[in-house]
Amino acid sequence: MTDKRKPVFLVIGAGAGIGGHAAARFAAGGYHAVLARRSDEDGLARLVGEIDAAGGSASGTLLNAAEDGTIEELVERVERDIGPIEVALYNLGAQIGNRTLHDTPHRTFELGWRLGCYGVFRLAHAAFSAMVERGKGSLLVTSATSAVRGNAGQHSHAAAMGGRRMLCQTLNAEFGPQGIHVAHIVVDGAVDAPDTLGKLLGDKFEPFKAAKGEDGVIDPGALAETYWHLAQQPRNCWTHEVDARPWTDVAWWNDNPAPEINSAGKGFAGPGSK
Ligand SMILES: NC(=O)c1ccc[n+]([C@@H]2O[C@H](COP(=O)([O-])OP(=O)(O)OC[C@H]3O[C@@H](n4cnc5c(N)ncnc54)[C@H](OP(=O)(O)O)[C@@H]3O)[C@@H](O)[C@H]2O)c1
Questions:
Q1: Which domains does the chain have, with CATH numbers?
Q2: 113-150 confidence digits (pLDDT tens)
Q3: Which of 30, 107, 135, 193 is spaced 20 to 30 A from 205 at the CA atom?
Q4: Within 6 Å (CB) of ligand 1, which residues are found?
Q5: Which atom of ligand 1 is nearest to the CA of 141?
Q6: What's the pLDDT score for residue 3?
Q7: What is the pTM of this model?
Q8: For 251-261, what is the mean pLDDT?
Q9: How far apart are the C-alpha atoms of 160 and 107, rounded to whole Å?
Q10: How close is the Cα of 12 to the center of ligand 1, in Å?
Q11: Pick from 135, 153, 91: which is nearest to 116 by CA?
Protein backbone atom coordinates (compact mmCIF):
# COMPACT_ATOMS: atom_id res chain seq x y z
CA MET A 1 0.00 0.00 0.00
CA THR A 2 1.33 3.47 -0.87
CA ASP A 3 2.19 5.67 2.07
CA LYS A 4 0.11 8.84 1.60
CA ARG A 5 1.90 10.80 4.33
CA LYS A 6 4.25 13.69 3.56
CA PRO A 7 7.81 12.56 2.83
CA VAL A 8 10.17 13.30 5.67
CA PHE A 9 13.50 15.12 5.65
CA LEU A 10 15.34 14.02 8.79
CA VAL A 11 18.37 15.96 9.98
CA ILE A 12 20.62 14.69 12.75
CA GLY A 13 22.53 17.72 14.04
CA ALA A 14 20.24 20.65 13.37
CA GLY A 15 21.65 23.92 14.63
CA ALA A 16 21.21 27.42 13.22
CA GLY A 17 23.81 26.73 10.50
CA ILE A 18 23.70 24.05 7.82
CA GLY A 19 21.31 21.68 9.62
CA GLY A 20 18.61 24.25 10.30
CA HIS A 21 18.88 25.85 6.87
CA ALA A 22 18.69 22.49 5.12
CA ALA A 23 15.57 21.66 7.17
CA ALA A 24 13.99 24.96 6.14
CA ARG A 25 14.85 24.34 2.47
CA PHE A 26 13.33 20.87 2.40
CA ALA A 27 10.25 22.06 4.31
CA ALA A 28 9.82 24.82 1.70
CA GLY A 29 9.99 22.08 -0.93
CA GLY A 30 7.10 20.13 0.60
CA TYR A 31 8.79 17.77 3.04
CA HIS A 32 8.01 17.46 6.72
CA ALA A 33 11.33 18.33 8.38
CA VAL A 34 12.33 16.48 11.53
CA LEU A 35 15.12 18.32 13.32
CA ALA A 36 17.25 16.55 15.92
CA ARG A 37 19.92 18.21 18.01
CA ARG A 38 21.66 17.49 21.27
CA SER A 39 20.97 20.11 23.88
CA ASP A 40 19.50 23.46 22.91
CA GLU A 41 15.75 23.14 23.41
CA ASP A 42 15.05 26.83 22.80
CA GLY A 43 17.16 26.83 19.66
CA LEU A 44 15.30 23.77 18.42
CA ALA A 45 11.90 25.39 19.10
CA ARG A 46 13.06 28.54 17.31
CA LEU A 47 14.07 26.65 14.17
CA VAL A 48 10.84 24.63 14.11
CA GLY A 49 8.85 27.84 14.73
CA GLU A 50 10.56 29.63 11.84
CA ILE A 51 9.68 26.80 9.47
CA ASP A 52 6.07 26.81 10.70
CA ALA A 53 5.88 30.59 10.30
CA ALA A 54 7.11 30.28 6.71
CA GLY A 55 4.24 27.87 5.99
CA GLY A 56 6.30 24.69 6.21
CA SER A 57 5.85 21.58 8.29
CA ALA A 58 8.40 20.60 10.93
CA SER A 59 8.92 18.99 14.29
CA GLY A 60 11.92 18.57 16.51
CA THR A 61 13.50 16.39 19.13
CA LEU A 62 16.51 16.43 21.40
CA LEU A 63 18.83 13.44 21.16
CA ASN A 64 22.44 12.63 21.85
CA ALA A 65 23.59 10.87 18.71
CA ALA A 66 26.69 9.59 20.49
CA GLU A 67 24.53 7.28 22.63
CA ASP A 68 23.69 3.88 21.21
CA GLY A 69 20.04 3.41 20.35
CA THR A 70 19.11 7.09 19.99
CA ILE A 71 19.32 7.39 16.20
CA GLU A 72 17.74 3.97 15.80
CA GLU A 73 14.81 4.85 18.06
CA LEU A 74 14.25 8.16 16.28
CA VAL A 75 14.23 6.59 12.82
CA GLU A 76 11.74 3.96 13.97
CA ARG A 77 9.50 6.60 15.59
CA VAL A 78 9.54 8.90 12.56
CA GLU A 79 8.73 6.08 10.14
CA ARG A 80 5.90 4.90 12.38
CA ASP A 81 4.37 8.18 13.56
CA ILE A 82 5.32 10.89 11.05
CA GLY A 83 6.08 9.61 7.58
CA PRO A 84 8.53 7.86 5.30
CA ILE A 85 12.07 9.19 5.55
CA GLU A 86 12.89 10.08 1.97
CA VAL A 87 15.98 12.16 2.70
CA ALA A 88 18.20 11.84 5.76
CA LEU A 89 20.98 14.31 6.52
CA TYR A 90 23.78 13.35 8.88
CA ASN A 91 25.11 16.76 9.79
CA LEU A 92 27.09 16.21 12.97
CA GLY A 93 30.71 17.16 12.96
CA ALA A 94 33.42 15.98 15.33
CA GLN A 95 35.57 19.10 15.58
CA ILE A 96 37.35 19.66 18.89
CA GLY A 97 39.80 22.32 17.77
CA ASN A 98 43.50 21.74 17.23
CA ARG A 99 45.13 19.39 19.75
CA THR A 100 48.47 17.68 19.77
CA LEU A 101 48.53 13.90 19.94
CA HIS A 102 49.30 13.89 23.67
CA ASP A 103 46.60 16.46 24.30
CA THR A 104 44.03 14.19 22.66
CA PRO A 105 42.70 11.80 25.31
CA HIS A 106 41.76 8.32 24.13
CA ARG A 107 38.13 8.94 25.02
CA THR A 108 38.10 12.12 22.92
CA PHE A 109 39.48 10.26 19.93
CA GLU A 110 36.82 7.60 20.36
CA LEU A 111 34.04 10.17 20.74
CA GLY A 112 35.18 11.84 17.51
CA TRP A 113 34.87 8.49 15.74
CA ARG A 114 31.44 7.88 17.29
CA LEU A 115 30.11 11.23 16.12
CA GLY A 116 31.99 11.49 12.86
CA CYS A 117 31.80 7.97 11.52
CA TYR A 118 29.87 5.46 13.58
CA GLY A 119 26.79 7.70 13.63
CA VAL A 120 26.61 7.63 9.82
CA PHE A 121 26.84 3.84 9.93
CA ARG A 122 24.05 3.70 12.52
CA LEU A 123 21.79 6.06 10.56
CA ALA A 124 22.26 4.05 7.37
CA HIS A 125 21.65 0.82 9.28
CA ALA A 126 18.43 2.18 10.73
CA ALA A 127 17.01 3.98 7.70
CA PHE A 128 18.07 2.04 4.62
CA SER A 129 15.84 -1.05 4.89
CA ALA A 130 12.65 1.00 4.56
CA MET A 131 14.20 3.10 1.78
CA VAL A 132 15.18 -0.04 -0.12
CA GLU A 133 11.67 -1.40 0.27
CA ARG A 134 10.33 1.82 -1.24
CA GLY A 135 13.02 1.72 -3.95
CA LYS A 136 14.27 5.24 -3.24
CA GLY A 137 15.88 7.46 -0.67
CA SER A 138 18.85 9.74 -0.12
CA LEU A 139 21.46 10.03 2.58
CA LEU A 140 23.29 13.34 2.59
CA VAL A 141 26.39 13.53 4.77
CA THR A 142 27.90 16.90 5.62
CA SER A 143 31.62 16.67 5.86
CA ALA A 144 34.73 18.79 6.12
CA THR A 145 38.18 19.29 4.67
CA SER A 146 39.43 16.81 7.27
CA ALA A 147 37.71 14.06 5.30
CA VAL A 148 40.24 14.51 2.52
CA ARG A 149 43.31 15.89 4.26
CA GLY A 150 44.97 15.20 7.58
CA ASN A 151 46.39 18.24 9.31
CA ALA A 152 48.29 19.26 12.41
CA GLY A 153 46.21 18.89 15.55
CA GLN A 154 43.36 17.11 13.78
CA HIS A 155 44.01 13.48 14.82
CA SER A 156 40.54 12.74 16.10
CA HIS A 157 38.66 14.89 13.60
CA ALA A 158 40.51 13.81 10.45
CA ALA A 159 40.39 10.11 11.33
CA ALA A 160 36.64 10.31 11.95
CA MET A 161 35.86 12.38 8.87
CA GLY A 162 38.12 10.36 6.58
CA GLY A 163 36.31 7.24 7.78
CA ARG A 164 33.00 8.96 7.08
CA ARG A 165 34.02 9.61 3.50
CA MET A 166 35.04 6.00 2.86
CA LEU A 167 31.87 4.79 4.53
CA CYS A 168 29.83 6.91 2.12
CA GLN A 169 31.63 5.29 -0.79
CA THR A 170 31.02 1.77 0.49
CA LEU A 171 27.37 2.57 1.21
CA ASN A 172 27.04 3.82 -2.34
CA ALA A 173 28.59 0.66 -3.72
CA GLU A 174 26.07 -1.52 -1.91
CA PHE A 175 22.97 0.64 -1.95
CA GLY A 176 23.25 2.69 -5.14
CA PRO A 177 22.08 -0.31 -7.18
CA GLN A 178 19.12 -0.61 -4.78
CA GLY A 179 17.99 2.96 -5.45
CA ILE A 180 19.61 4.77 -2.51
CA HIS A 181 21.66 7.87 -3.25
CA VAL A 182 24.45 8.71 -0.81
CA ALA A 183 26.15 12.08 -1.21
CA HIS A 184 29.18 13.25 0.76
CA ILE A 185 29.47 17.03 0.95
CA VAL A 186 32.94 18.39 1.69
CA VAL A 187 32.52 21.77 3.32
CA ASP A 188 35.94 23.30 2.67
CA GLY A 189 35.70 26.54 4.59
CA ALA A 190 34.13 28.35 7.49
CA VAL A 191 30.34 28.45 7.76
CA ASP A 192 28.22 31.16 9.30
CA ALA A 193 27.11 28.71 11.98
CA PRO A 194 26.59 30.33 15.38
CA ASP A 195 25.92 27.05 17.20
CA THR A 196 29.17 25.36 16.15
CA LEU A 197 31.94 27.58 14.79
CA GLY A 198 30.33 30.49 16.64
CA LYS A 199 30.62 28.69 19.97
CA LEU A 200 34.13 27.48 19.20
CA LEU A 201 35.35 30.99 18.44
CA GLY A 202 33.25 32.73 21.10
CA ASP A 203 33.62 36.51 20.98
CA LYS A 204 36.08 36.18 18.08
CA PHE A 205 33.32 34.89 15.77
CA GLU A 206 31.88 38.24 14.66
CA PRO A 207 35.32 39.87 14.11
CA PHE A 208 36.38 36.72 12.25
CA LYS A 209 33.37 36.96 9.92
CA ALA A 210 33.91 40.68 9.44
CA ALA A 211 37.56 40.08 8.52
CA LYS A 212 36.65 37.35 6.04
CA GLY A 213 33.94 39.45 4.39
CA GLU A 214 30.70 38.24 2.84
CA ASP A 215 32.51 36.12 0.21
CA GLY A 216 34.77 34.59 2.85
CA VAL A 217 32.24 32.64 4.92
CA ILE A 218 29.78 30.08 3.61
CA ASP A 219 26.16 31.16 3.89
CA PRO A 220 24.34 28.02 5.11
CA GLY A 221 21.19 29.12 3.31
CA ALA A 222 23.07 29.13 0.00
CA LEU A 223 24.63 25.76 0.79
CA ALA A 224 21.17 24.34 1.58
CA GLU A 225 20.31 24.84 -2.11
CA THR A 226 23.08 22.36 -2.97
CA TYR A 227 21.61 19.83 -0.53
CA TRP A 228 18.20 20.28 -2.11
CA HIS A 229 19.61 19.82 -5.59
CA LEU A 230 21.50 16.65 -4.58
CA ALA A 231 18.37 15.05 -3.22
CA GLN A 232 16.35 15.90 -6.33
CA GLN A 233 18.86 14.61 -8.90
CA PRO A 234 17.53 11.94 -11.26
CA ARG A 235 19.56 8.77 -10.89
CA ASN A 236 21.04 9.03 -14.37
CA CYS A 237 23.27 11.82 -12.98
CA TRP A 238 23.76 11.20 -9.27
CA THR A 239 26.55 13.15 -7.60
CA HIS A 240 28.33 11.16 -4.92
CA GLU A 241 30.69 13.81 -3.71
CA VAL A 242 30.64 17.57 -3.94
CA ASP A 243 32.65 20.32 -2.29
CA ALA A 244 31.91 23.92 -1.42
CA ARG A 245 34.12 26.77 -0.27
CA PRO A 246 33.93 30.54 -0.01
CA TRP A 247 35.14 32.53 -2.97
CA THR A 248 38.10 34.06 -1.13
CA ASP A 249 39.43 30.74 0.24
CA VAL A 250 42.12 28.62 -1.32
CA ALA A 251 41.00 25.08 -2.13
CA TRP A 252 42.29 22.42 0.29
CA TRP A 253 44.56 20.82 -2.30
CA ASN A 254 46.39 24.11 -2.83
CA ASP A 255 46.49 25.25 0.78
CA ASN A 256 49.80 25.12 2.65
CA PRO A 257 49.09 23.14 5.80
CA ALA A 258 52.06 24.50 7.78
CA PRO A 259 50.59 26.24 10.87
CA GLU A 260 53.12 29.10 10.78
CA ILE A 261 52.10 29.93 7.23
CA ASN A 262 48.44 29.77 8.17
CA SER A 263 48.96 32.13 11.08
CA ALA A 264 50.71 34.55 8.74
CA GLY A 265 47.38 34.93 7.00
CA LYS A 266 47.56 32.50 4.08
CA GLY A 267 44.65 30.22 4.80
CA PHE A 268 42.55 29.88 7.90
CA ALA A 269 44.33 29.11 11.13
CA GLY A 270 41.43 29.26 13.57
CA PRO A 271 40.01 26.20 15.28
CA GLY A 272 37.05 24.58 13.67
CA SER A 273 37.73 25.63 10.15
CA LYS A 274 38.71 22.66 8.07
N1 LIG B 1 30.74 25.40 10.92
C2 LIG B 1 31.80 25.34 10.12
O3 LIG B 1 32.56 26.30 9.95
C4 LIG B 1 32.07 24.07 9.36
C5 LIG B 1 33.20 24.01 8.51
C6 LIG B 1 33.45 22.84 7.80
C7 LIG B 1 32.58 21.77 7.94
N8 LIG B 1 31.49 21.85 8.77
C9 LIG B 1 30.64 20.67 8.90
O10 LIG B 1 29.28 21.10 9.00
C11 LIG B 1 28.55 20.23 9.86
C12 LIG B 1 27.89 21.01 10.95
O13 LIG B 1 27.13 22.07 10.39
P14 LIG B 1 27.11 23.49 11.09
O15 LIG B 1 28.48 23.81 11.57
O16 LIG B 1 26.43 24.44 10.18
O17 LIG B 1 26.26 23.23 12.41
P18 LIG B 1 24.69 23.41 12.72
O19 LIG B 1 23.88 22.73 11.71
O20 LIG B 1 24.39 24.82 13.02
O21 LIG B 1 24.58 22.65 14.12
C22 LIG B 1 24.93 21.32 14.31
C23 LIG B 1 24.25 20.87 15.58
O24 LIG B 1 24.68 19.53 15.88
C25 LIG B 1 24.27 19.30 17.19
N26 LIG B 1 25.04 18.24 17.81
C27 LIG B 1 26.33 18.24 18.22
N28 LIG B 1 26.63 17.08 18.81
C29 LIG B 1 25.50 16.35 18.82
C30 LIG B 1 25.16 15.07 19.31
N31 LIG B 1 26.05 14.32 19.99
N32 LIG B 1 23.90 14.61 19.14
C33 LIG B 1 22.98 15.36 18.48
N34 LIG B 1 23.24 16.60 18.01
C35 LIG B 1 24.48 17.07 18.18
C36 LIG B 1 24.45 20.59 17.97
O37 LIG B 1 23.28 20.75 18.74
P38 LIG B 1 23.21 21.57 20.14
O39 LIG B 1 23.61 22.97 19.79
O40 LIG B 1 21.78 21.44 20.56
O41 LIG B 1 24.17 20.89 21.09
C42 LIG B 1 24.62 21.64 16.86
O43 LIG B 1 23.81 22.74 17.04
C44 LIG B 1 29.57 19.21 10.39
O45 LIG B 1 29.50 18.04 9.66
C46 LIG B 1 30.91 19.91 10.18
O47 LIG B 1 31.95 18.98 9.99
C48 LIG B 1 31.23 22.98 9.47
A1: 8-263 (3.40.50.720)
A2: 999 999 999 999 999 999 999 999 999 999 999 999 99
A3: 107
A4: 13-20, 37-40, 63-66, 91-93, 115, 142-144, 187, 190-191, 193, 195-197, 220, 272
A5: 45
A6: 79
A7: 0.93
A8: 65
A9: 13
A10: 9
A11: 91
- Interatomic CA distance for residues 239 and 63, integer angstroms: 30
Please answer whether residues 215 and 242 qualify as being in contact, where contact means their C-beta atoms are separated by less than 8 angstroms: no
Say how many Å lie between the CA of residue 1 and the centre of ligand 1: 37
Distance of CA 60 to the CA centre of its chain: 17
Q: Does the pLDDT at position 260 exceed 60?
A: no
Nearest-CA residue for ligand 1 atom 17 is 17
Pocket test for ligand 1, best of 41, 192, 196 (most atoms within 8 A of CB): 196
Q: What pLDDT does 104 receive?
A: 95
Mean pLDDT of all residues in 55-79? 98
